[in-house]
Task: structure prediction
Amino acid sequence: MLKFQMMSSTFALGVALLAPPAIAQTATPADVGQQGPEQAADTGLDDIIVTAQRRPETLLKVPASVEVLSGDRLRAAHINNLANIQEVSPSLIVTQSSNPSTGVFTVRGIGTAVTDRGFEQSVGVYIDGVFRGRPGAALQDLLNIERVEVLRGPQSTLFGRNNSAGAINISTALPNAKALGMYAEATYGNYDAVQARLSVNVPLVTDKLAVSVAVAENYNHGFIEAPNLPRGRTNGRDRQSVRFQLYWTPTDQTRVRLIGDYSQLNDSCCSYLPLFVSDTAATGPFVFNVRGGFIGYTGPTPGTPGVSPSNPASSGTFYRPFDRRTTQDSPSGEKTTDKGVSLQVDQDFGNLTLTAIGAHRRFQSNISLDIDGVNSAVTNVRSDPSTNIRETSAEIRLQNAAGSPIEFVAGAYYFDQKIVDTNLLQIRVKPVATTVTFYNSVGTGTAESGAIFGQATYNLTSAFRLTGGLRYLKEKKTANVTVAPGSFSFPGTAERNDDALMGSATIAFQPIPEANLYLRYARGYKSGAINLLLTSPTIAANPSVNPETTDAFEAGAKFRLLGDRLSTNIAVYTQTVNDQQVQAFNSQTSSFVTLNAAKVRSRGVEAEILYRPVKPLTFNGSISYLDATYLSFPGAPPPAGGIAPSQNLTGRTPPNAPRWTIVGGVSLDQPLSDEVRLLGNVNLRHATSYYTDLALTEAFRNGNTNFLGASVEFALRNGFGIQFWGRNLTQQNAYLSGIGTPLGSGSLSVFVNEPRTYGVTLRFRH
Result:
């Protein structure tokens, strides 16, 4: 209640500051510096501008598969962070498991699940041109979003780091130096969800200097019942964010953008739920049986006797994780802070533009996990890792104006990173109040990388364009890991030096201005890595993995038809990943296994359509057909709960790679009177069956899923509005991922998705 009162006060304060002049105005920006819901004079679609090639271009002109999600569309779907963007994107899957900061981004079935902070994503995330080195620095709530570009396939030529599978390019709205502006909203929903957002834009010097400030609060009580915890619930959110921007144009040739942001997270997340509890006695030195070792264990829901799908010799009890109840007796959660500052300067010299971007960021995480996940009367097993990450990056680019006979962009990039990762696993024996340290380590990792790059487009004719680009990268990584005595020995230090040449080549043909046909080749690269999470002697003996490379071929076509009322894009692709970096949890040894999978092939078809038959209605649809296969993966981790030391996954489908994904939606912008507009939105995402863990454990496989979201808003001419919204209205149940229960021989646990959520949002736009 206190949080709701605070948010309501914030909303009221913002409205009070700007309400008097707003009463006589129409509702315009949906966020500060952004355009509101489209109100074109005709039924034509607006041009979609993207920066996928490091310069502003229409989506039609870009010869690559790019999906664009506008800020308006995300707000209509009540999507406030990257973790939920997959609800409206067919080629992107974002999963979170043991904690919010170790999410996994997967594009076209390719992604890296990383718990070890020494490893990086295969899908790079960039916010206003700045690379976010770890998922936790990208999975915060989003503020003042103008658009999100999902770039499919390798993007290693023009983007800074580690884009072997794709990139997510996020652009926020620039401050507006022409007019005062404000956006405020307050939300209340089920699970005691309360959210508030306030953005204010202030011109300091008309047409020259402006600042904007955005703040957000996001809280809910949790959607998993936890009767043994003090709050009675878990898997809740408690997040705050603030973002400051200054935009200065001292001359027509000079543009300066300063950004500072800070966010903190204190989520009670993420609890895994028992799916199968085995009766089998433990056999290894690192494990003991859940039912036998955790005396006093009782299931969270009525159980059904059965046999493990991973080991027919293992009998036990199946539980219902989608009842969303846990018996854990110790809280799980994560506290993070993410902060940074960036400065971008653009200077025009006639036909040339010089761009310089510098950024410094810090990320800190403290995690607390109830590893056993049950209410044992004898023991409590906890893991309490912490991470500190410092990143400094700099990029300089020189490019000429679009429309030149030869269009080019060339530049250099520098990245420096330091990670300090502490891992502590303890077993607390309750009757005698004794704590036994199972594992304790401190790992320090560094990465220093430099690259030069360039891309040029030669306009052979007004219709034919040839584009080629190259990037040369050199990188050094070091690691120093100290393991507490009594665990196992480790040499202490490791180092690797990598260099790589990557590039792309494209031929594009525009027979008419409304069509673009293209062929594209791209080579992607992700640096090698060194483990900082050495949980077993096997990993300690070989802590490093090789770089990951991707070769991708793509053919596509883009059209604007029916007098700009219809936009269609289609792409056919095939790509091969060599030495894919993968990580999995081995419940037999209670350790993470990190290795290079030999080879993965991903091929398929992607298509999008945007159609506005009449002014009030806009239809959108996307479809992805994906055929992903491990071409060679011997020695893969065993399925969770299995007894074999390894398995051969050659010929199998990787995780998070549904064969078909279809996203469809319709939006409505209909005036009801001179004073009121009706804004409606419905979106549906259908995906066929897919695995959720690297070992392809059958018990963790999702069936067909259907997620439905909808919203209705009444927007008043004076700037006020009220929106009723719902997400997962179909109450679709799905696994996010699954693991062999730590320290529970043969048992299986899962992380589950959010249930149906709904609420009401009050808005004010000026």
